[in-house]
């Protein structure tokens, strides 16, 4: 399998879009208030990508766990996984994987304003990679080494949602949305 990278590492591909952060939104509210802070438990989705089977919900949990381990190591509070936010992150990753939208933050404002959650600020990290046995770890490594993405990871957020999708070409798209509700 041929792998290429934007960072010059042989035999791999990892592309990151710069982290997107909104300015605080004073008193923003969605049509309904339902801050569902329960952990997400949805049946595992499997995607076969270039003869590799990715359990996308396992990759999402891996990103969540890695980000929270990093936050705790820096004295920051853990993020709470939210099913509504995860749903929007998954839709965006699926749309990028299917070519419906480009690899970007396109539609970010709509993704967060559609949420039935009152929030003060929001941010988003996206990543794309191909050819890695652990695409979640590669995305997190890339985010931690990128000032814009790291700003979101270390931000004063309390809720998150993570969505992962892969396509038949072996491309894996990851989206993490962050919200500050308090």
Automatic annotation (TrEMBL):
Residue span(s) of domain SCP: 65-178
Name of the protein described by the UniProt record: Allergen V5/Tpx-1 family protein
Pfam family, one: CAP
Cited PANTHER family: SCP DOMAIN-CONTAINING PROTEIN (PTHR31157)
Keywords: Signal
Keyword Signal: yes
Signal peptide positions (record): 1-17
Domain of life: Bacteria
UniProt cross-references to SUPFAM superfamilies, sorted A to Z: PR-1-like
């Amino acid at each position: 399998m041929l792998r290429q990278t934007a960072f010059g590492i042989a035999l791999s591909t990892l592309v990151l879009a710069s982290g997107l952060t909104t300015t605080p939104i004073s008193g923003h509210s969605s049509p309904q208030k339902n801050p569902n802070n329960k952990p997400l438990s949805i049946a595992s989705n499997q995607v076969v990508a270039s003869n590799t089977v990715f359990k996308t919900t396992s990759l999402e949990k891996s990103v969540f766990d890695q980000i929270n381990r990093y936050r705790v190591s820096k004295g920051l509070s853990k993020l709470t996984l939210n099913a509504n936010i995860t749903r929007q992150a998954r839709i965006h990753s699926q749309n990028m994987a299917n070519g419906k939208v480009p690899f970007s933050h396109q539609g970010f404002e709509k993704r967060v304003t559609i949420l039935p959650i009152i929030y003060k600020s929001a941010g988003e990290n996206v990543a794309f990679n191909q050819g890695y046995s652990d695409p979640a770890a590669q995305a997190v490594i890339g985010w931690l080494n990128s000032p814009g993405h790291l700003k979101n990871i270390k931000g004063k957020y309390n809720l998150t949602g993570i969505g992962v999708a892969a396509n038949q070409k072996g491309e894996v798209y990851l989206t993490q949305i962050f919200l500050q509700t308090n």
